[in-house]
Amino acid sequence: MPSWLPGSGSNPPPSTQPSTMGGGSGNWMNMDNMRYAQGELTGENDAFKGLGLELTRQQRIMGFVGCLVGGFALSIVGSVLLFFGSTVLFAILYSIGVIVSLVGTGFLVGFKRQLKAMFDPVRIVATLILVAAFVMVWVAAFAIGIDALVLVFVVILYLAYIWYSLSYIPYARSLVSNMFSKIF
Question: Closest Cα to residue 127, out of 149, 151, 98, 107?
């Protein structure tokens, strides 16, 4: 009997043999075994052990999407309040919305790894501008009280968030830089 047929005696049981056809329990990268499903091979549970959590890939994606949608909703509500003349509430909701969206990426890579990645050399400038703009939005809204200055710092915060996010996509920053260098 050929060795590739089930039950030929030379193959390990299906629960420990990687699938080469992409079938099985929904794993698509040739890793259809029990250790992969439990996160031992991917390290997905290691990212949250310090917090006492063991999240599945689906729970992590749901956390990411939830934070992204929640942060976007907070920013939209803040923007609507801006049209009603409430600059302080706008500043609060918009800046918290950006931070909630940023926390969402921690669900994908783990919060400890996210904090380390924020201060990698490729992201340090964007991170510092992001933090400084976040602080300045609150200072402009509460201490100084100048509405136009709040808007300026919100725009800086938004641009820093985009620049920070692009650092996770290969070649995205160079593509954006090339586009702007051709325009200007």
Answer: 98
> Domain segments of the chain: what residues?
1-42, 55-174
d(CA 109, CA 47): 7
Measured between alpha carbons, how far is 54 from 51 in angstroms, rounded to an integer?
A: 9
Joined tokens for residue 61: 């994606």
What backbone phi and psi angles, to 5 degrees, belong to 18?
Answer: -65, 145
pLDDT tens for each residue of 64-99? 899 999 999 998 998 888 888 888 888 889 889 988
| Residue at token pair 């030929």 | 8
- Radius of gyration, CA atoms only, the chain: 23
| Type of residue at 51 | L
Distance in Å from the first CA to the final CA of the chain? 69
**Cα–Cα distance between 146 and 125 in angstroms, integer?**
26
Kindly report the pTM of this predicted structure: 0.62
